[in-house]
Amino acid sequence: MSRTRTAFALGLAAAGALSVASVTATATPLPLAGSTTVTPAGHSFKATLSGKATLKAGSVTVTCSVSVSTGAVPAAPGNQNAAGPVSSPISAPTYSSCTSSIPGVTPTVTTSGSWSVSMQDGSPVTATMTVPVGGLVVHTTGLATCTVTAAPSAPANVAGSWVNGAPPSLTFTNAAVPVTVTGGFGCPTSATSSTFNAVYKVTDTTDPAQQITVGP
Question: Is the overall model pTM greater than 0.70, yes or no?
Answer without folding.
Answer: yes
